[in-house]
Amino acid sequence: MSTGTAGTAGGGDGRPIVIVGASLGGAKAAEALRAAGYRGGVVLIGDEHERPYERPPLSKGYLLGKTPREKIYVHPPQWYAEHDVTLRLGTAVVAVDPAAHTVRLADDGRIEYAKLLLTTGSVPRRLPVPGAEQEGVLYLRRVDDCDRIKAALRPGARVVVIGAGWIGLETAAAARTAGAEVTVLEAAELPLLRVLGREVAQVFADLHRDHGVELRFDVRVEELTGEGGRVTGVRLADGATVPADVVIVGIGIAPDTALAEAAGLTVDNGIKTDEHLRTSDPDVYAAGDAANAYHPLFGRHLRVEHWANALNQPQTAARAMLGEDAVHDRVPYFFTDQYDLGMEYTGYVEPGGYDGVVFRGDVRANEFIAFWLKDGRVLAGMNMNIWDVTDPIRELIVSKRVVDPDRLTDPNVALGEV
Prior knowledge:
The protein has helices at residues 3-8, 24-35, 61-64, 79-82, 143-152, 166-177, 193-196, 198-210, 258-262, 307-321, 390-399, 405-409; strands spanning 17-20, 42-45, 85-88, 93-97, 102-105, 110-112, 115-118, 122-124, 137-139, 158-162, 181-185, 214-216, 221-227, 230-236, 241-243, 246-249, 253-255, 271-273, 284-286, 291-295, 300-302, 333-338, 341-347, 356-362, 367-374, 377-384. With 418 residues, the chain is α/β, with parallel strands linked by helices. Strands 3-2-1-7-19 form a 5-stranded parallel β-sheet. Strands 9-16-10-11-12 form a 5-stranded parallel β-sheet, with helices on one face. The longest helix is centred in the last third of the chain and has 15 residues, at 307-321. The model is unreliable at 1-10 (pLDDT under 50).
């Protein structure tokens, strides 16, 4: 795209492109606009006082003390001025007016926009039981949350994690690595059961038990007990109480759609967009956790709560705002690190939407690839402690070809030849 076209699209009338959400997604959108040659104004607004940072380190390297704080940021501090991006931190957007093409700030200031991108992300689901507001009950979403959890993870501390999803398991692993005594409470029969299915969920249950985590499944939390305003335990529906010095709640997140709903945009499990990340208003786009985007490969809308979406979707949105026919069609991807296990997952499978799971490699040694199949086709693949296979897994998914399960599970057959 020529510089002239970029300068005209999105802001040729003097109004800037405004990005609400100074997150990884927001920062990457600003970067993509400048990389495409767009010369108009770019305003990036966030309610946190930290400049945009990445969230995966908050439950991995930074939480473990292995990643220095400076490494979590998307750009160095001088990048925004050097690229003529107006970064407004500690600033809450309280309303969007699509008809007037304005956003209203908490101080009642207004900013006009030519195009608007919402990268508002998501918010942790709160635990709806008595005692949940006490001191020592922690959630993990922002860097300040991570700092509070890090301070609580010390040898001998009694840490109770409520929820055995990705955040729950990663914080449990960090707590055990720090020497804490850890109990994980989960309403389902196994961790990650809805996401991975029984076959692979058992692998994560075994992993945490092998590292000394007490796992309690099929439990319901009734109350968080406390003394002097500080949490002391978790009371379960069966009457048992699990002692706790700190409780980490990881029961999922919800897309932050309040601004979009109030503005009259279509919202359905997130801000609904087309494959160009365009919302029901032609001058408003959405990306990241908050976006429920149409995916042409899967023929349906998907809202994916993972780092790769926040990294890649904004590039599509930026190019689309500048008039390109840009389409987001990347296969979903995410990763986790727990103890000595590293895992990458590529693809998308609805709960129960597969015929079976087959394995290539040594499951007992946690060195394998799992494939989710339906009608003989690969829907998703997860590689554990095996690397450099995401590209061939992605090709299997995109090709939609019927595979031979025997060749798929044979480590002597290249994935491209199954």
